[in-house]
Fold this sequence. Notes:
The structure holds two protein chains of two kinds. Chain A is mainly α.
Amino acid sequence: MIVLTFAALTLREAARRKVLRALAVLTVVLLALSAWGFHTLVTKEFDGAQLTSGELRLIASQLLNLVMFGLSLIAALGTAFLAGPTVAGEVESGTALAILARPIRRSTVLTGKWLGLVAFGGGFIVLAGLAQFVIVYATTGYWPSDPVTGLALLAFQTAVLLTLGLLFSTLISPMASGVVAVGLFGATWIAGVVGGVGRGLGNDSVAAVGTVSQILLPTDGLWRSAMYAFQDPAALLGFGGPAVKGGFPFLSDTPITWAYLAWAVAWTALVLGLAALVLRRRDL
Amino acid sequence: MNAVWASGLRKRYRKRTAVDGVSFSVARGEVLGLLGPNGAGKTTVIKMMLGLVRPDAGEVMLLGRPVGDPQARARVGYLPELFRYQPWLSAKEVLDLHVRLAGADVPEGERRDTLALVGLADRARDRVGGFSKGMQQRLGLAVALVARPEFVVLDEPTSALDPVGRADVRDILLSLKERGVAVLLNSHLIGEVERVCDRVVILDRGRVAASGTLAELLGGRELRLRLEKVTSEAEERLRRAGPVHRDGDLFTVVDLDVDVIPDLVADLVALGVRVHSVEPGRVSLEDRLLDILGSER
Ligand SMILES: Nc1ncnc2c1ncn2[C@@H]1O[C@H](COP(=O)(O)OP(=O)(O)OP(=O)(O)O)[C@@H](O)[C@H]1O
Ligand SMILES: [Mg+2]
């Protein structure tokens, strides 16, 4: 299978190109910091006043979501900067000439690369996420409410972003495509926070900012559902007023819905299809 | 059947016309040279021929299939003008990858032989990223040859090579020719083209300026003689061999049949002409090319 050849090639590239090492270093730093932070939190900060188990769960939930956001950011940066060069870079350097003169379709190459990147991003999320769960459990005794769903959604978020990176990669230069993808990812996240505040305040037009951006680029919607799966189900009850509910950036009030999941799948297929179409028409 | 058949190829980049109605073909087992000045459209023609660039108009049949069908490229080997291979792979891994992509069944030993053929046998396990430019071009040559192609397309295969490498490429081309593999060679080294090509297509500003076999393009032989005491009778005898140009005591007879030279010389001597030198020659492809391109301007 030629698709798998390209998937394997993409993984080999990631492994040999120091991206893996850079990611590993960043991840270890983040995990170590979080271990230190959680440990300090439990032993020092609150040692005068013992935390109730409810308070601990609330704090652990938020902190876990914060660190998971860090992880998803690393995954996003890593895969976006892998996805960027993969098409644009190979076209620019001339590597694509020899490859695409072989009896293969351009869409096959693209799909293979996509699969490889998804495997890479997903693998990273699962490994680093599990390590983080263990750290949180060891320091605070908290275990996420639905870790499998959460990690799957986070991996899906990475897949969505790298698909976008791949589309840009067929259109613009290698670096620009990575930067634009990550920029849009950040913008959607901010729009999500803004929309959450709007929802909390009952301001529909502000809330619409979040909803629309989550439909245009499903990364933030998936991220919020992933948070929901990580946090303690009772966490949000800890806050009194509805005003803060939606607006809190590291707690979520929205579980994943099948409709949104279906949209995210369709979005990904659509964008990948568009990338294939653009690449097919492109002169090398 | 043709290895490639192209008709009416046209390509514009924005306002600039790169290729403007180019038609040509390469027969199976034939070696075709593609010549022309910088920017003539040679590389663009090659890329359209391989489906790497979409022509605005025109049609290409590659090894009997329309070029839109990926399988048309199954038995084609290509060395691009801009040769770059995955720097994170070793030379051997690059060849393995291309064998797999070509869907060819090439045993390990044969792959090694191909690397040896281009002089990279002892660098097989080194990363391509550490290769010199010429070594990368040699690897590109191996990539073009490894999957048992029936048609090899080389876009300036010796641009980065040392003189030994150039001689190697010439030998490789001759051995391909011997095995009946069709070749399209784009090169600025006219000597190289003259040595190996059966036919030549000359492109200029996106159009075919001239094409034909070497004999057709270069015309017949010529003969340069340095003579003394040339009588009108002797001059008449010279003219019977072919059109004569005279420049002092240097006489040039063009388009003559080489077989008539001994008789001609014997007759001239019999007519009392003193013959100082007799030099058979041929219009070089280089002169002819400059001539064609000059008359186009
Ligand atoms: N990607 C491109 N974008 C814009 N113009 C291009 C592109 N590729 C080629 N051209 C133009 O098309 C024309 C032909 O270029 P091409 O590369 O085919 O020439 P060439 O005959 O191979 O020249 P050389 O001998 O220098 O390799 C040139 O005028 C060039 O500027
Ligand atoms: Mg060229």
